[in-house]
Amino acid sequence: MPQYPPPPYGLPSPPPAVSGLAPLRVADSFADLALAERTVVPFGRAPDGLPWLLEVNRSDRMAQLRHAVVAAFELDRWERLPEGVRQAVDTQVAAGLLGIHELSAQPAGAPRKRVYVSRRPVRELLGATVLTEALFSTSEAATRPTGSALPITAVAAAVAAAGADEVADRLERAIQARRASRHLVLHLAEQSCSTATVLAEDAVLRRPQEPVRAALFETLRALPGCTLQVTSGDGQTTRVGVDDGEGYGWALLRGGGLYDKKVAAAVTRAAVLGLLSGLGQAAGALHRQGIVHGDLTPANCLLEASGIVPFDSLALATGDIATAATFEWAAPEQIISRPVSPQTDVFALGRMLARLLGAVPFGELATYVVPTGGGSLSQVPVVKTAGVFIDVTGTGRSRSWQRAWQGLLLDCLAFDPESRPADGQTFADRVADVAAAHPIDGAIEINPAVGRLVAIEPTRGMGVGRLLVD
């Protein structure tokens, strides 16, 4: 059984007010995923500290499989099949069709590992990242798409015009990667959680591609001063520090119900600015190795205990032409198939900073038509930035504050890469300098995690988890 920190996973002695709340039984082992038609397993921690719970319900599919086998042999009921056939269908056949696979193990020659591969991709299961939530207002978050529907993996395939075989090969790999998705991989014997890519052609059977990476889960504890707000149906709000797991658990269970509770996390804009600065430093470490990330977006950054971590890098060398881009955040040279550089990542960092500050770049608007694979085209608007405006009306912020941040953003969002800060570390240093002289204020309310709040049966007392349905 995976080991979790102290409360709120288990609260020592629930009060009488919640004694009638029916808790959900959680499986003791990932092994249940191999055979059980319906089970719930814990596999990690949500950003607010509650355990992620994965519900897997295969009863309908198993019934359909059994019905098909019975019909194939022209029998009238399942029980008339030989016991060995029934057992094989319920184990080997069902496992291969319902997400159970074997992975090669290291070192070579070691026993293969049996795993369960989630039906839904990781982005769809876990929802938007903390940084994505922080950079989009609550009202926008309520109307925009979530999970895999977010505009996070558009492919800019204009490099096909280059004509070189090596570039064309990279283009084809990029198109294939766009059609793939990452899924959870739960190791049945080891009780560990990883992620792996599933290609589009393997989506039905969910065959994972190696290498398999350790799963990374976000935590709000990395945000200084972050508080969790629990609001009941009667409008009563309880606020607790993100480190107060037991207080958070009591706030959720108070009143005997979970379904009327709304949870939000409050974080200062200054703390989010710290994330962007940390992201610049992380990008700078890549730049010192001659690597350009190439896809710095809020959706490609995870908030771990050690800080903000970018992932899904295109791992481009300075001077390469990118085969992929997320248009909303990509630099102009990446969209129009020009060589990339560390300044390409700086542009993406500038876009995120502009989003945090509510800044509006303005200038000449150009529209580029780029192929995106599969015979499709996209029209991508690009602003040749002539200036950046931050509205300070009624905020109490000074003109010097306005000019300082506008000036930094104008440099970061310059159409010409050479006019931008040299690399991620330079971006972080300039952000620190401006913030020291002109601090940013205000707070942001974000959704701390997806999933339905449920009462669960831990080893002692009663706890709360976030239930995701696969």
Widest sheet: strand order? 3-4-5-6-7
> What is the structural class?
alpha+beta
CATH fold name of the domain at 268-445: Transferase(Phosphotransferase), domain 1
Poorly predicted spans: 1-17, 141-162
Provide a quick synopsis of the model.
The chain is of the alpha+beta class and 470 residues long.
Structure commentary:
This protein is α+β, with helices and mostly antiparallel strands. The chain has a domain at 268-445: Transferase(Phosphotransferase) domain 1 (Transferase(Phosphotransferase), domain 1). It is built from 13 helices and 19 strands. It has helices spanning 32-35, 59-72, 83-97, 122-126, 130-135, 138-143, 165-178, 245-253, 269-288, 332-335, 342-357, 399-412, 424-437, and strands at 38-45, 51-57, 100-103, 113-121, 181-187, 192-198, 209-214, 227-231, 237-241, 262-268, 291-292, 301-304, 307-310, 316-317, 360-373, 376-389, 443-446, 452-456, 463-469. Strands 3-4-5-6-7 form a 5-stranded antiparallel β-sheet. Strands 1-2-19-18 form a 4-stranded mixed β-sheet. Helix 2 (59-72) packs across helix 3 (83-97), helix 9 (269-288) packs antiparallel against helix 11 and helix 9 (269-288) runs antiparallel to helix 13 (424-437). Mean pLDDT is 83; it is low at 1-17 and 141-162.
